[in-house]
Amino acid sequence: MTTSASSQLTKQKLEQVGLIPVLRARSLDEGHALVDAMMAGGVTVVEVTMTVPNAVDLLHKLKKLYGSSLLLGSGTVTDAAQAAATIEAGAEFVVSPSLHLDVIAKTKELGKVSVPGALTPTEVITAWRAGADYVKVFPCSAMGGASYLKALRAPFPDLRLIPTGGVTLQTAADFLKAGAVALGVGSDLVNPAAITEGHPESITKTARAYLDIIQATRATR
Question: What's the CATH number where 90 sits?
């Protein structure tokens, strides 16, 4: 498969699921458990952040364990070297919390999907023009949540935006109605306490609930 075909397939899978769980685990074992619980609920995408201890090792192991059944991304990537290392470990998409042109360039050079973070209209359009496949609007809730996303879409209707920060089961539908192509979700779904307390099924239940909301909201658009 060519790099362009691989990148296109990544985008199709990402948008089909419509959800990017942001994994912040305290250990490799906890990371495995969180992914298992989400996949049991039908969520087959995960973003492993660089704040996870031995994050690159976790990417390697998840890739080996799940193969093509799990779409892996790396998160909190802030320089080109990190981007390259995570892609080598198995990341198909690279996410940043902020705008780093060198990360976009390296990700695209290696044929993967670029999801830089941006907040202001200037940052958003700068990221897009630099070659981003999607723009992560972060922290979206701090600027008004879904109403801010809708406001951004007015002058930039063709941009593919992924809100992160403040996405919950209660706000997910509003973000989708505002034009989000997918949702970045953190502790509302990826909840390490549920693993620690021996209740991974609560994560599985939440994963299913998110997918139900996404399906139902898209059906009405």
Answer: 3.20.20.70
Task: Find the helix or strand (DSSP H, E) in which 124 lies.
Answer: helix 121-129
The values of phi and psi at residue 86, to 5°, are -75, -35
| Closest-CA residue to 80 (of 104, 56, 53) | 104
CA atoms of 67 and 210, how far apart (whole Å): 24
Share the mean pLDDT of the chain. Answer: 95
Tokens representing 34 are: 């969180």
The size of the chain, in residues, is: 221
Q: Which amino acid is at 101?
A: L
Q: How far apart are CA 159 and CA 152, in angstroms?
A: 9
Tell me which residue range forms the domain holding 41: 3-219
pLDDT digits (tens, 9 = 90+) for 121-159: 999 999 999 999 999 999 999 999 999 999 999 999 999
Coil vs helix vs strand at 118: strand
Residue with tokens 């996870």: 52
Total count of domains within the chain: 1
Active site residues: 47, 136
| 9 alpha carbon, distance to own chain's centre | 15
Q: How many CA atoms lie within 13 A of 111 on its CB side?
A: 11
- In this model, does residue 180 exceed pLDDT 70? yes
